[in-house]
Amino acid sequence: MKQSLEKLQNQIAEVVTFSGEVPLGDQEAYADAMRKQGVSEETIQALVAEINSRQQKRASQMDVSPAANCRQRTDGAEARNGFGQVIYRYASTIEWCYNGTIITSLDTWQYGNGSSWGQANP
């Protein structure tokens, strides 16, 4: 019985894919966009924490002048087992600023956890 439960715990029952584009730094809009697509709070909190960490590290590198318009787009997936537990999550994010005619700064990054993605980033 224990082996059956362990096997069920690791089987994918549902995959939620998500995609969203919001103004850079608007974490409330980001979280709301993810919630509307059925992403778990655990994944939302992990991604927002990663976004905040990255933005703090490179705040001086981004063009955030009043003339700059900055956005971020995230596409990803979250897989859950039959118990609703997240088995893995993956997201790819691009952040950019532009001044109306040209992109002035650009950053991309990926986030994932779970053995199927090779490198775990809890």
Rounded mean pLDDT score: 80
Strand line-up in the sheet with most strands? 1-2-3-4
End-to-end C-alpha gap: 29 Å
Rough outline? elongated
Kindly give the count of domains. Answer: 1
* CA gyration radius, whole angstroms: 17 Å
Number of DSSP helical runs: 3
Largest sheet: 4 strands, antiparallel
Protein described:
- This protein starts with a helix and ends in a 9-residue tail after the last strand.
- By secondary structure, the chain is of the alpha+beta class.
- The chain contains 3 helices and 4 strands, in the order H-E-H-H-E-E-E.
- Strand 3 and strand 4 (103-113) form a beta hairpin.
- A 4-stranded antiparallel sheet has the order 1-2-3-4, covered by helices on one side.
- Helix 2 runs antiparallel to helix 3 (41-57).
- It is 30% helix and 38% strand.
Detail the topology: elements first, then pairings.
Blueprint lengths: L1 H9 L3 E10 L3 H10 L4 H17 L11 E12 L5 E13 L4 E11 L9
Antiparallel strand pairs: 1-2, 2-3, 3-4
Helix pairs in contact: 2-3
